[in-house]
Amino acid sequence: MKKEIHNNVTKIFYMIRYIWKYTPCYMGILLLQVLGNALWDILVGMLFLKYLFDAIEAGADYSEILYRAVIVMVYRLILILYGKWIENIYRPKANLKLHEGMQTELYQKARKLDLAYYDNPDFYNQFIWAIHESDTRAVKIMSNLSDLLSSMISLLGMSAVFLAIDWIAALAVLVSSALSFFIRIKANKIKYQKMEEMKPLIRKTDYITRVFYQGDFAKELRMGDMVKILQDDFDKSMDQKISCAKKYAPGILIVSLLSQLMTTYLFNIGIVGYLVVRYMLDSDFTLGGFSVGINATWKLFVQVSRIIDCFSRLNEDSVYADKFRTFTELEPQIKNGYEKAAKFETLEFQQVSFSYPFGNQKNREVLKNISFTIRKGEKIALVGYNGAGKTTLTKLAMRLYDVTGGSIKYNGKEIKEYDIESYRAHIGAVFQDYKIFAATVAENVAGGEYREDQNMEITEALKSAAFCNKLETLPKGIHTMLTREFDEQGVNLSGGEMQKIAIARAFAKPYDIIIMDEPSSALDPLAEYELNKVIGAAAKDKTMIFISHRLSTTRMADRIYMFDNGEIVEQGKHEDLMRLNGKYAQMFSIQAKKYHL
Fold first, then answer.
1. How far apart are CA 457 and CA 399, in angstroms?
2. Does the pLDDT at position 482 exceed 70?
3. Which residues, including other chains, have CB under 8 Å from residue 551's CB and lie 6 or more apart?
4. Residue 403: how many CB atoms within 10 A of its CB?
5. Cα–Cα distance for residue pair 407/138, rounded to 1 Å
6. Which residue has the higher pLDDT, 376 or 179?
7. Enclosing H/E stretch for 407
8. What local confidence, expressed as pLDDT, does residue 526 receive?
9. Of the candidates 306, 271, 289, which has an alpha carbon nearest to the alpha carbon of residue 172?
10. Which residue(s) pair with 346 in the sheet?
11. 212, 384, 410, 593: which sits with the fewest CB atoms below 10 Å from its CB?
12. Are 27 and 20 in contact (CB under 8 A)?
């Protein structure tokens, strides 16, 4: 138990460090509010109340009572104004600063982490929790801590006052509050166990709900029979949720009844009854003491309840804080080198082998003893069926992953010796699963921040990707916004047009090596033929690596490598491989009939 509390406190304070880092005044401002509210509960809620009733009972001067009441009212007004300032002015601004700082840090962390992390489902869980909960959870932690501190100060102060007035009633309240504390802890534990059992069922029903309201699934739902399967899954999950609720209902009922009995009988009948009897029989027990006793009975119970709630919420916060901490403490396994990469001359693969560290291909060799060399200006084609290892090899070449066997050398040196940013600056890539961003054409092609003096380079890059005809139809040219995510005047492109934007990125900068992974997969054969001619002309002096299933692109290659099951099974020029009459020739002949090659 001690260890668990220590771990939770450590996790909570890890998050507080970020609040201090980005909004250093936040804690001081909340602490001032905590102290002000605690003093109100002790000085006004109890001591002033006692003075007020005793003064009235003793027939004191009403002007003196009124004077003190005005001071109390002014103090309360100051607390209210201060609270409203925090709520409506300071906190929104501070929360935005905290959001900006923490999210920026998370984005930078995500970009630095290895691509391999994205093959790990646990990484996604941590990342999603961190992104969605980091700053809001930090704010909740501060709010819960301030509530806890306020309740504890109030509890201690009011207990001291109550003990001085009636130690028997005060002791009874504290004992019953302690019992209530343990009952609530037990109740929270049962609810937590129930929620843990419910979580996978909630995720499943939430997923099915999303499928029905998201437009991405609308066509498939109407054209297939998935609705019945999803509905059956939903019904089963709901039945399981009902069974789970029934399982925990008796335990929740028992602790709820115990808690209610503690409140109703011990407080309403026991302690309150005792105070009434004492006031009637004990002439030294003043009306002020009686009123404080009644007030303190309920306030102490409320403070204990608040403390229990705060502990419960902080325990939940610690789970989120742990996810955030786990994510922020992840470190790249791909270590940076120190050499600055010079202009490209050669890229050598020497007995390269690779196994993915996560996912359904974990520990399975997807590449085995790959060896060949690419020289400046060469056009290389990597061909083969899905899963043969072609794309994985280019990811290794870009050092998105590190080899698990063998080595890759750039200009004679292992790529691990180079500064990663410096090395990747020589490689442009069009990925098979390319993405278009909700930004302008120019920003999409530039791959980031765009400057006005880049107009010529952007236009030439689009020309190299055979996008010029479409560009002429865009309302604002290269400044046209793509997608309508944030702009109703934005343009939605076809799959082939988006692919050309992605291809243009590879020509927007003076890369030495251009990797094209299925560069024309979204195009029909005729458009593919035209695009290949344009790309070939634009990249005549560049080193290019093509990955393709459709072999119309391979004729222009200086060398073709046929991959099968992670190995190079054939290599040579198109004519040589056709004469060999092996797997490449078989694959090409099948496509030749289909596309009239």
1. 27
2. yes
3. 383, 584, 587, 588, 591, 597
4. 22
5. 44
6. 376
7. strand 405-410
8. 62
9. 271
10. 375
11. 593
12. yes
User: Which structure tokens are listed for 574?
Assistant: 């198109």
Half-sphere exposure of 126 (CA within 13 A, CB side): 19
* 508-519 per-position pLDDT tens digit: 888 889 888 876
| Whole-angstrom distance, CA of residue 378 vs CA of residue 301 | 80
The reported pLDDT for the residue numbered 150 is 83
CA distances from 398 to 384, 425, 445, 525, 547 (A): 20, 10, 20, 29, 14
Round to whole Å and give the CA distance between 174 and 303: 11
Structure tokens at 439: 């930004």
- Residue whose structure tokens are 């458009």: 527
Single-letter residue type at 530: E
The model's pLDDT over 250-266, given as tens digits with 9 standing for 90+, comes to 887 887 777 766 665 66
In contact, 563 and 384? CB cutoff 8 Å: yes
d(CA 313, CA 432): 45
Reading the block at residue 227, the tokens are 């609705």
Which is nearest to 406 in space by CA: 414, 394, 398, 418? 414
Q: Give CB contacts under 8 A, 24+ apart, made by 161-165.
A: 161/42, 161/46, 161/47, 161/292, 161/296, 162/46, 162/292, 162/293, 162/296, 162/300, 165/50, 165/289, 165/292, 165/293, 165/296
Q: How far apart are CA 390 and CA 204, in angstroms?
A: 35
- Amino acid identity of residue 274, one-letter, is Y
Is-contact 549 571, C-beta < 8 A? no
Give the type of residue at 177.
S
Residue 46 pLDDT exceeds 80: no
Q: What is the DSSP secondary-structure string of 382-406? A: EE-STTSSHHHHHHHHTTSS--SEE
CA distances from 217 to 80, 211, 226, 547 (A): 50, 6, 10, 30
pTM of the shown model: 0.65
Q: Is 59 left (phi over 0), alpha (psi -120 to 50) or beta?
A: left
Q: What is the per-residue pLDDT across 198-207, written as a single tens digit (0 to 9) for each?
A: 878 887 888 8
Q: Shortest CA distance to 161 belongs to which of 19, 9, 50, 307? A: 50
Largest CA-CA distance found in the chain, in angstroms, rounded: 118
Query: What integer best gives the mean pLDDT of the chain?
Result: 79
- Tokens standing for residue 237: 């999950």
Helix (H) or strand (E) holding 50: helix 49-58
Question: What are 570-581's pLDDT values in tens digits?
Answer: 999 988 888 899
Instruction: Name 543's Cβ contacts closer than 8 Å, sequence gap at least 6.
Output: 344, 347, 374, 375, 376, 377, 378, 379, 380, 512, 513, 514
Low-confidence winner among 208-217, 391-400, 416-425 (lowest mean pLDDT): 208-217
Residue 360 has pLDDT above 60, yes or no: no
Query: Residue 412: left (phi > 0), alpha (psi -120 to 50), or beta?
Result: left
